[in-house]
Amino acid sequence: MLSRVLFVLFCLSFTLLNAQSNEDILMKVGKSDVKVSEFKYIYEKNNGGAADYSAKSVNEYLDLYTKFKLKVEKARELKLDTITALKTELEGYRKQLASSYLIDKEVTDFILRELYERMKTDVAFSHIFISAAENSTYAVREEAKAKIKDVKLKLAAGQKFEELAQQFSQDKTTASKGGEMGFFTAKLPAGFYELESALYNTKVGETSDILKTKIGYHIIKVTDKRPARGSLEVAHILLDPESKVLADSIYNAVKAGASFESLVTKYSKDKNSVKNNGKLPVFGINTYDRVFEDAAFKITDNGGYASPVMTKSGWHIIKRLSKPNMDTYELFVKRNKAQIGKDPRFDIAKTKLISDIKQSSGFVENLKELERFTENLDEEFYSFKWSPNEQTPTIQLFAIGGDNIYSVKDFADYCKKNTKTRLKYDKSKPLIETVEELYNEYVNDAVMSFEEKSLEVKYPDFKSLMREYEEGILLFEATKINVWDKANQDTVGLKAFFETRPNIYMWDEKAETTEFTIATADKELAEKIYKYAAKNNAEKIEKKFNKKSKVVSSKKSDFEKGAKEVSDVEWKENALSTLAFNNKDTYSFKKVNKIIPSKPKNLSEAKGYVVADYQDHLEKEWLLELKKSYEVKVIEDVLQKIIKK
User: Fold this and answer.
1) Helix axis angle, 193-201 relative to 344-361, nearest 10°?
2) Which helix (H) or strand (E) holds 130?
3) Ramachandran angles phi, psi of 562, nearest 5°
4) Residues 431, 437, 438, 443: is their CA dihedral positive or negative?
5) Strand order in the sheet with 587-596
6) Which residues, 6 or more positions from 546, have their beta carbon under 8 angstroms from its beta carbon?
7) pLDDT tens by residue, 402-426
8) pTM for the full model?
9) CATH topology of domain 120-227
10) What is the domain class of 233-322 according to CATH?
């Protein structure tokens, strides 16, 4: 029998989404309505590409779904939905689902959609950079802040960005060029999400505010935007820098129809790509020299060529092989969803979500009370022995949504319960900083819990999902009562059912066999024993050949017809398998002693199969009763609108 969790998850294949009150009703099952969108969703989900909406397909699935709804209707009549244990179980499922659902909807989906849209555009920018690595000292960071703020003031006063970049930017590679970085596209490496966001949110010709990345502070100026070049696959012939004439000659030759591949083999100096006919790995922008990339991306057709271009490596004759299309959003999500949670942008987006919830929910806090709480702490706070003072006030610390109030005492209890979290902090860390971090964690948890409570209102599909979890639990209980428990406990009924099915539960035809092992490397002796076994049983064989020492041993076993253990033995009495020499200086073979005909199993021997069949029998009877008890009415004209002629 399925566990409750597995059964509920199985039943979630019947999840119904986004049912609207003004939608057409497809059918009525007892007192319950089934709307068109509910049926279409479950039909498409479970039939996949075979969901062709043909009359045959729709009617078959409608019958299956009707049976599901009948069982749920019975469960409600039995008031299984009022059982405290089941309500508690449902709340447990909700708690597990809500957090991940909210994160998926409000954070993961947002990040994936944002990134996908950004990947459609390349952005060119310049920057002014002041170094301050993540692990730099407080003094270094403060000095860097002061410098970048000074630059910002100069920009505001009208000084040119390019001149300030040349004068102040600590990016020595780009400073002399006015901070020019060229084109970039999302996604930027970890630690540069704020910079990436500025690239896409700043208009061409405008400058950003001060940005912080993992390497320091930036001010950027967006200089151009274009449709993303995406990725490209090319092959090339690389020639020495002094080979301009040869490069032109090869280019003219391939344009005239000469074999590019043979010319690669003959002339290319790129040892890594020669063995692959000059083919390079698929690449996007900022992979190779800008001159090389510009020339490659200007080729408009597969099989086309670019005029020879010169880079630091030498002359290149480039052939375009293919231009991969951008993934569909669905495929992009499939490839990136698992990894996106590990990206720092995920935490940034989650922080923003919490901030938005605070703002929309009327979040208020009393930080003076947090300060008073901290003032009464000492180093014992960093130990497992610490407990809140009994006099810790119940005064409000913060509130969400007006009536969700959290007191100082609530926070103190949180600190006590989360000992592991509290002990992870070093005693050298100031108490005020430790408490502040714990407080922020506590607030974030509370804010997310508040938002999770309103998921049914905000997301109709979550409401439907929870309804289906509830129906899954009810269906499990109703089926358990009417089918599974009855099949296992009704011994009289089980026996009667078994007796109505003679010759259904049968033992397959079997062979009684003896496996002989001969402890010798003497092939002549082994063959002698093997020949003797053809007409004699194990007892005679062992008596004849084990007089001085135990040379032959035997083991009896029964095998059903078709078993791999007797695949090399003819299926008849006295048949022998081949004589096999084993690695341990032994020989072995099998002998069929007799064939045991197929015969019926008794109830004890067949019980597992009988119980399963009895369950199917009981379920069919149950469904017949349900169809008599509850009216099922299909709205025919609505059904016909669904079916494709």
Assistant:
1) 70
2) strand 121-131
3) 95, -10
4) positive
5) 552-560, 510-518, 587-596, 580-581
6) 552
7) 889 999 999 999 999 888 878 887 7
8) 0.60
9) Chitinase A; domain 3 (3.10.50)
10) alpha beta
